[in-house]
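Our preliminary data section would be incomplete without showing what the modeling component actually yields. Below, a chain of 257 amino acids is followed by its predicted structure, encoded as tokens that our downstream tools consume directly.
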Amino acid sequence: MKIAITGKGGVGKTTLSALLSHIYSKEGKKVIAVDADPDANLSTAIGISRDEISRIKPIGEMADLVEERTGAKPGTSGGIFKINPKVDDIPEGFGYRIDDILLLVMGKSKFASSGCYCPEHALLRRLLKHLIVDRDEVVIVDMEAGIEHLTRGTAEGVDAFIVVVEPGQRSLQTANAIKGLASELGVKRVFVVANKVRKEEDVDFIRSNIGDLEFLGKISHNESIVESDMGGLPSYRASEQAIKEVEEIKKALEKAV
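Predicted structure:
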């Protein structure tokens, strides 16, 4: 299963990514969790301690690695560099393992900028394609609010694009924009998960505003998750209710795909 999770900032992409990673891991699956959102904090949500997080260097910021694999220094553009660098050893060589989850932090390069095609962009894009197309683990990618940094070939390898939304017009506008981007890449099915749901009317509102996007389920508003995030604690320890709700979302997803 290859899952890409996106949505407007702050809607709960990282919480869903972390919970799905742990649920699959507890089932005995090997999981690669990819933090591809520079503003996300998937490492904390998965359960890596603050001390350990400080030692994790994002791949896009490893200047020596970027230069070694692409033949060009990071930050340069317009020059000559390898657009298909060797990446198959990067997950085990530069990832961080916690239980059966291997975390890869992509970093703050201009990874998602359509106007940039620099060496680190080439390395990260090739790495993402390797993870989605070539690997046989469960791969869960916590992305920015869009999927434009995926190539067509990579996007076609994703089993499920999930857009996390909350009750509100801006969140839903982002979901519909992502649907348009996905369509351009040949992705026919985009799913929606509702987060921060306080009442059933919130679900009705979301369902009535997502058009033909497929609704997978909901995660209720939960102060325990908010507090765990503030305290730097892993999402899976915050709430049994959230775990049960995401287990139901996972079942609906597997049935759909």
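The chain has one domain: 2-256. The longest helix spans residues 240-256. Preliminary results of this kind motivate Aim 1 of the renewal.
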